[in-house]
Amino acid sequence: MKISLNWLKDYITFNTSLDDFVHKLTMAGIEVEAVHDCHGDKVVEVEVTPNRADCLNMIGIAREVSAVLNKVKKMPSIKKLSFPKTKCDVQIVENDKCPRYIGIVIEGVSVKKTPDTILKRIESLGLRSINNVVDITNFSLLENGQPLHAFDYDKLIGGKIVVRFAKKGEKIVTIDGVERELDPSILVIADEKRPVAIAGIMGGQDTEVTSATKNILLESACFDQVLIRRTSRKLALSSDSSYRFERGVDFDGVEYGSRRATDLILQTAGGKMTSYNNLVAKKPRKIQTTVNISLDEINSSLGAKLTTAKCKTILNKLDFKVSSTKGGMFKITPPSFRTDIKASVDIIEEVSRIIGYDNLPMTMPEIKATDITTDNRQVCRKRVAQTMVMQGVSEIITYSMINQVALEKSHQGNLKGIKISNPLTLDQEMMRPTMLPSLLSVVQFNLNKGQKNLRLFEIGKVYTGNKEKDVLAVVMTGDRDKDWRETMLKPLDFFDLKGCLEQVFLKLGNDSVLFEQDAQEYFEDGAAVIKVKSQSIGSIGEVHEDVLDNWGIKQQKVWFAQIDLDALYSGSAFEKRFQPISGYPAVVRDISLAVKNSVSFQQIKDIVYELGGKLLTNISLTEEYIGEKIPEGQRGLVFSLQYQSVERTLTENEVNVVHDRISQALTDRLDAVKR
Q1: Labelling 564: which of 106, 298, 479, 664 has CA 20 to 30 A away?
Q2: pLDDT in tens, 372-429
Q3: How many CA atoms lie within 13 A of 321 on its CB side?
Q4: Distance CA 489, CA 486 (A)
Q5: What residue segments make up the domains of the chain, in order of their start?
């Protein structure tokens, strides 16, 4: 946004130095980016934030300067206009997209060179002169922020204006000479047969005002800002008008802009108004009626001692309506163009920025000491991440958005992700229902870069239905870390991944986790479902070869696990449990069995601990054998059982009793054979 200081002084008189002006404007929240000389004028370029569309015009800037410098603002004088009772033919088909449209037909205009007073103003801000009618619409836009457009009325077929969506196959040549193809998502201004302008963006060449024009229709309207933004992007077409419509045009400013431009056209181009139509299709919903705030609240927030008069003066300069109530309260009504004012904190911001943040006293805030509490979820998440990192697994963060193709490649096309209504790219069309595609894409990327040995994890969210949940996803591929004691590198396998997860469960104080064999389409045989108290919380296994082929991962296995952390949070216990170290010797005995392949280690472990009682302190699998002397469908297992007491040295006899009882129970319950 450019500001002409000479033009600005038409509305407000000040003699502040340029440096002081720039500093105060910047401190008020309108950042000055550059200052240029322009034929005896100073042109200031400012950065206007998206929520301050009211500052995209000279009057808006004059309002701010009036408040900052405490000067009186002079509004341009407009001759009292008597609009004709005859209505021009305007029809709004899309009420939601065009809530207001004012059309004014002026006949007998003289299109000629623009007067110097207007010409200098628009040229100082970088616009080139076209003719007096078009230049006045541009002048009004720069002055009060209301975009306008003038049509050659005689070129409008049927003398009619229709605000509608374009029809499929319609085209328009815009005033820049480019033919543009339209579609039904684009709002247009049409006559009886064809589009004559792209609503809110640019007019058409067929109806533009030229030196031969005698009669015009002046348009002043407001359009849906989201629709204008999307249309501008779709057509790769932007203009001064679209820039303002995208940020929001004041509903009440539509009439002021039309009156100002009409007055100037009648003065400079002559003519007579013959018809007029102020069509309100839909009144805007009032975002904010009033804000109630006390002087104490303002002073407490700013650490200042402002008076009631000072605050009222500042807000009045900004066109806020302020009334005092009993108890030192202000009842404040923001102007219609300040849609960003919604709460008391916004009023405090207005007061503070006009005073100047550098003018506020420096005071230390009063901070009361309070206990910092963390919930179970935060503690769990931190412990999970720390445990994984301590095991040499690197944390990654991936996008939460994927596409359907990624799910299909991962053999998870049956999962339903939450679709995004307006995705930035086709690769991010939905919120992910699973982590597998995200981690496989990272594996693929790293393998292509020559990184073959990967151990990665992510703690993130997955989305199903209308719910989201925290999950831990882990992926491993390649070889284990090189060890000077090993001459051959060993590849990572199922048990490396399972061991990492078991450490996580251990750190969370959850010792009731089971791994049960289960089949999944995206896993090879031998995968497992992870359960806590009979509830499935995740899965683990080797990623299926077909899935790896889909992702371009060749010649090495990939192991993947995903755990629902939400299911673990509630069942995690963090109390430190003291276990005394026994001062008495332990007794170790082995059991060698041949069991069916369907028998799990967990089944054996449950029986051993059930019958071992307090004397049994540990069980570990020391050997697995399949081959000679082992029947088909079975496997030979050797377990090491440790017995120990914290009270005394165990006798051989009492160990034998317990050990024999365990051995017999295993053979009876599991149909096992002692070896």
Answers
A1: 479
A2: 776 778 888 899 999 999 999 999 999 999 999 999 999 998 998 899 988 888 889 9
A3: 7
A4: 7
A5: 2-69, 89-280, 291-354, 376-569, 587-674
The C-alpha atoms of residue 593 and residue 148 are separated, in whole angstroms, by: 91
Structure confidence at residue 287 (pLDDT):
54
Q: DSSP labels for 355-386? A: H-GGGS---PPP---------HHHHHHHHHHH
- Whether residue 628 has pLDDT greater than 70: yes
Q: Does an H or E element contain 231, and which?
A: helix 225-235
- Both tokens of 246, joined, read 């995208």
- Residues with Cβ within 8 Å of residue 15, at least 6 apart in sequence: none
**Is 2-69 a CATH 3.30.56.10 domain?**
yes
Report which of residues 576 and 329 the model is more confident about.
Answer: 329
Q: Are 418 and 431 in contact (CB under 8 A)?
A: yes
Secondary structure E strands in 235-342: 272-280, 291-294, 321-325, 329-333
Contacts 24+ apart (CB under 8 A), 37-42: 38/4, 38/124, 39/120, 39/124, 40/6, 41/4, 41/5, 41/6, 41/7, 41/124, 42/4, 42/5, 42/6, 42/18
pLDDT digits (tens, 9 = 90+) for 532-554: 888 899 999 999 999 999 999 98
pLDDT at 325: 67
Instruction: Quote the CA–CA distance of 21 and 459 in Å, as a whole number.
Output: 51
pTM listed for this prediction:
0.60
The candidate with the shortest Cα–Cα distance to 317, out of 338, 290, 302, is 338
89-280 adopts what CATH topology? Phenylalanyl-tRNA Synthetase; Chain B, domain 3 (3.50.40)
- C-alpha separations of 62 from 56, 216, 258, 352, 387 in Å: 11, 31, 20, 18, 60
Give the position of tokens 């500001």: 3
Q: Does domain 291-354 have CATH number 3.30.56.10?
A: yes
- Strand 513-517, strand 418-419: pairing: unpaired
Task: Name the average pLDDT for the chain.
Answer: 91
Topology classification of domain 587-674:
Alpha-Beta Plaits (3.30.70)
